[in-house]
Amino acid sequence: xxxxxxxxxxAQIHAHGEAAYPEEGAGFLLGKADGESRTGTLILPxxxxxxxxxxxxxxxxxxxxxxKAEELATARGLDVIGIFHSHPDHPNQPSDFDREWALxxxxxxxxxxNKGKAVETRSWRLSDDRSKYSEEAIAxxxxxxxx
Amino acid sequence: MxxxxxxxxxxxxxxGASQLDIKSEKVSGALxxxxxxxxxxxxxxxxxxxxxxxxxxxxxxxENVRDLAGADTPLKxxxxxxxxxxxxxxxxxxxxxxAALRTNQVFIIGxxxxxxxxxxxxxxxxxxxxMLIGTLLKKPGFGFVYQGWLKxxxxxxxxxxxxxxxxxxxxxxxxxxxxxxxFALLLVGATGAxxxxxxxxxxxxxxxxxxxxxxxxAVYYWLNRLRVPGFVKAAPAGSFPGLRPKAx
Lengths: 147, 248
Known about the structure:
The structure holds two protein chains of two kinds. Chain A is an alpha/beta fold. Helices cover about 25% and strands about 45% of the residues of chain A. Chain A is built from three helices and eight strands. Classes of the chains: A alpha/beta, B alpha+beta. The interface of A and B includes residues 24, 58, 60 and 70 of A.
């Protein structure tokens, strides 16, 4: 399992988590999947649809936004390959809640944002039996910017 | 014949298929056909109890079936049924044992009342000191009575709920400061003002013990809403700031 990202795209994900701080920020990662390896090429930030009081420890993206992401992916010849979200002032490991709501196959990128500064992003995949997450290595590659 | 579109993350459990032709004329029947054709999909769409998982949303031609007729929404030839997951996640709340908090409140109230009745300023000071030490150790000051005796002996059952510990710590710290200020006033002979402060602590602890309202936590959450640095936790979803969160 490997997720390839350009440094530029990772910087965009970090910037999104920092902008959302102290709330959780989230969005879609679009790209191409090829067997067990995949490459992210584009992010689509999403609105956090949770009520105000919960946004520091929850994010939720409506199915309508998911539909938009799928449509954008189709139009660009890509797939939605994962979801990124931030954990403000918390480690970048999936919580039990993350697991309950997770889908298999997607890459779940979690960025820990400490005191407003994005520290590190790790990527996780849900196991087939939904029991646990496994970490997926992130490889930084040359720019893959879509035109 | 309608078409069911399988979302990308679930295609691996459908032999790579991105769609399925549906004979059924209802959404519920379409799902039956899907899991019959691809049984490996079932655990990702349905809970063990047979209900649809919370994140599964079904759209017929871009309309959520929840706004139509739910599982009974009719499907006609040419319709597209899409499975669109809602995406959610986030950090879990920590666990707070409210039985330990209540034990602490009982001791604060009981010992402070005894101090007042016996006119024992030192006892009021002792309560304030216990709260201060507890705050520094990130524990309820009299929590050791619960941990060391009441819980192991089964006299009190744990009451662990998802909650933020920081506001409770802040509340206790605030109580410690007020209580010790009262003690200092008693020492310098300002008896009325001193006992008034200690009664404030008794009142707020009682409000928490008997009505589940933690005034210090409410202040913490208000400071959080005002984005005061250091007050990083917001009130748990669905609960009034300061009121005991519902067990879930």
